[in-house]
Amino acid sequence: MTALSRQLRAQSQPRRGLRREEAAAYLGFSARKFDELIADGRMPKPKRIDGVVVWDIHRLDQAFDALPDEGGDAIVNAWG
After folding, report:
1. Integer distance in angstroms from the first to the last C-alpha of the chain?
2. Which domains, from first to last, does the chain contain?
3. What is the pTM of this model?
């Protein structure tokens, strides 16, 4: 598979698991801020599959939904 075909596949196929930088970008955070949110329990910990570390996009969506709106209250999450 060529580099171009890998890039096109990555852009066209939805994925359930995202690497750290992808997960942070998906949520609109820097990787450093994403790490802080994981450390304080506002974002879920990753899954480790052999040597690959990925975040489940469904759990990221749930965690993001649980973040408080500006001036609002947070929803309690299950991974804190």
Report:
1. 41
2. 16-66 (1.10.1660.10)
3. 0.74
